[in-house]
Amino acid sequence: MAPVKEVGVGYEVVDVNFATLEHKGPEHLARNPFGQIPGFQDDELMLFGEFPVFVAVDSNSNNGLIEQ
User: Fold this and answer.
1) How far is it, in rounded angstroms, from Cα 67 to Cα 44?
2) Residues 10-42 as b or e (16 or more Cβ within 10 Å = b)
């Protein structure tokens, strides 16, 4: 999650075991209905895919990495 590190906000990494198909289990599918990574949750906001996560993190920080 390079964008999250770049803007300097706190985050928690949740390990997902692909070998045991954990990414297809209900807990991960709640974060990402396609069973892929990354899945991102910020309170009630649930996002998946790197670019939407980057946009959300950047818009909630004061770093302005994305030009408007």
Assistant:
1) 26
2) eeeeeebeeeeeebeeeebeebbeebebbbbee
**What CA–CA distance (Å, rounded) separates 8 from 37?**
21
Is the pLDDT assigned to residue 36 strictly greater than 70?
Answer: yes
Q: Write down the CATH number for the domain with range 2-8+15-59.
A: 3.40.30.10
What mean pLDDT is predicted for residues 11-28? Answer: 87
Which candidate, 37, 45, 46, 42, places its Cα nearest to that of 16?
A: 37
Phi, psi of 28 (to 5 degrees): -75, -35
d(CA 47, CA 51): 10
Residue 56 Ramachandran class (φ > 0 left, ψ -120 to 50 alpha, else beta) = alpha
